[in-house]
Design a protein that fits this description.
Layout (H helix, E strand, L loop, with lengths): L1 H20 L4 H47 L4 H10 L10 E9 L8 E11 L15 E18 L2 E3 L7 E6 L11 E3 L2 E3 L9 E4 L3 E2 L4 E3 L33 E8 L2 E6 L2 E10 L4 E6 L3 E2 L3 E5 L5 E6 L10 E2 L2 E6 L9 E5 L9 E4 L4 E17 L2 E3 L8 E11 L3 E2 L14 E10 L2
Parallel strand pairs: 4-6, 4-24, 5-7, 5-24, 6-8, 7-9, 8-10, 11-13, 12-14, 13-15, 13-16, 14-17, 15-18, 16-19, 17-20, 19-22, 20-22, 21-22, 22-23, 22-24, 23-25
Antiparallel strand pairs: 1-2, 2-3, 3-26
Helix pairs in contact: 2-3
Length: 437
């Protein structure tokens, strides 16, 4: 029996010696002890990768949202921005998402004209809490994406510009114009524009104030357009007149037949047509009517093929002077394409503020015109069709103080002002915004 116990003891000692030297289980023990650190490290890596992917998507959405807001640049810029963010699956107030779009942000260049979009989203934590990372609280991490953009602008040409220098509240109005057609033409008012019942068919209707119903695309709250042609008054030469005969009593200047003109031709007082007139002016001419009107008197004044004429009304304010075309008949004139009056067909001296209104533009007389009609202080009623001149390009631009468009008013000559030698009036309108950070 004792022998048996001795053998058992020796075997136990041998097993203990082998166990002491056996290292096969040490890896498992070490792995078990390091598991929390491994899980924490992998968890942080996973969380950071997830945050990066989510934040990149948010940044793309913020960039797109602020560009939309800056490009819209209207009163609904914030609606535009949040709507674009929603297209990225980031809906304001849903799934812990907040989207804010503001204007009046200081740009890097110092102007407070920029827009900023900020998107905040809370994402859940998965493995990071193993190492004690609490995030923003509540088991979540707040991610933020911000983008800033400045509004872009483009220059838009206008075939109708109402300067509203008189202070009139609504510089473009319509009355009974269901068939008016200004297609291919953009219009602008330096105050408000109101078109009842018909948008005139104009491509764009722009206004410094509010646009109501004018144009296929309407833009309110734009910067005012400066008078681009006032400086041309310096081209009006000095003249000397002993008197200014007026219709119907005075002995006024009368024209008919062929008139060979060149340079500056001054008429003192009214000019009346007593027959059809063809102006032959191959080198161009300027007809200056001082303190008088052009009374077409039922006849036509036209420029011959290859000829050009600028009609200038100048003089003094007050009295009974009319500084405009009157009477039935037709004006069929092409403006010069070069020189100081390039592209200008009719020009009222901007110092004139009385006797400048036109009550039946396009119909009495009819207008077949190539070039600019500049009436900066005139109240104009347009109620007829404006056609191109017989021998000129397709270009017509009208600059007025304010205008009432009635009936079937049409502006037909469009798109050829470069060929006519005229630089059209321009205005700044919102273009695509530009990111600045």
């Amino acid at each position: 029996m004792r022998r048996y116990h001795e053998i058992a003891a020796r075997r136990a000692v041998a097993l203990l010696r082998r166990f002491r030297c056996d290292r096969r289980g040490s890896t498992s023990v070490m792995f078990a002890l390091s598991m929390p650190m491994l899980i924490g490290g992998l968890g942080v890596g996973f969380e950071i990768s997830n945050w990066y992917l989510v934040q990149r998507g948010m940044q793309n959405a913020a960039d797109a949202a602020v560009l939309a807001a800056a490009s819209n640049a209207g009163t609904n810029f914030d609606v535009e921005g949040t709507a674009v963010a929603a297209q990225f699956g980031l809906v304001n107030g849903v799934n812990d998402v907040a989207v804010t779009v503001v204007q009046g942000v200081t740009c890097p260049t110092g102007e407070a004209t920029c827009y900023r979009a900020t998107i905040t989203k809370s994402v859940p934590l998965y493995l990071a809490p193993v190492i004690g990372f609490a995030g923003s609280g509540g088991g979540k991490k707040d991610l933020v994406a911000t983008a800033v953009a400045k509004p872009g602008t483009i220059q838009r040409p206008y075939c109708l510009l109402a300067l509203a220098s008189s202070g009139t509240a609504t510089a473009i109005r319509t009355s009974g114009s269901p068939s008016a057609d200004l297609a291919g033409c953009s219009i602008k008012s330096n105050t408000n524009a109101n078109c009842n019942g018909h948008d005139l068919g104009a491509d764009y209707g722009d206004a410094v104030g509010t646009v109501s119903g004018c144009g296929n695309v309407q833009n309110s709250g734009l910067p005012a357009s400066a008078d681009p042609y006032a400086g041309l008054a310096a081209n009006i030469p000095s003249y000397s007149c002993g008197s200014y005969p007026q219709l119907p009593w005075g002995s006024v200047v009368s024209w008919s037949g062929i008139r060979n003109l060149s340079g500056n031709v001054v008429v003192c007082g009214d000019l009346r047509l007593t027959g059809n007139v063809t102006v032959n002016a191959p080198s161009g001419a300027v007809l200056i009517i001082a303190n008088g009107r052009l009374n077409t008197n039922g006849y036509t004044i036209r420029t011959a093929s290859g000829s050009a004429l600028t009609l200038v009304f100048t003089g003094t304010n007050g009295g009974s002077y009319i500084h405009a075309p009157t009477g039935s008949g037709t004006i069929d004139i092409a403006a010069p394409t070069t020189g100081p009056w390039s592209g200008v067909m009719m020009y009222q001296d901007p110092k004139l503020t009385t006797g400048v209104n036109i009550s039946a533009a396009g119909s009495s007389p009819r207008w077949n015109i190539t070039g600019l009609v500049y009436l900066p202080h005139a109240r104009v009623t347009l109620n007829g069709a404006v056609n191109k001149s017989s021998y000129g390009a397709n270009c017509f631009v009208l600059v007025v103080d304010n205008i009432l468009i009635r009936g079937s008013a049409n502006i037909l000559p469009k798109g050829g002002c470069a060929a006519a030698g005229l630089t059209m009036p321009m205005g700044s309108v919102p273009g695509r915004g530009q990111l600045v950070n």
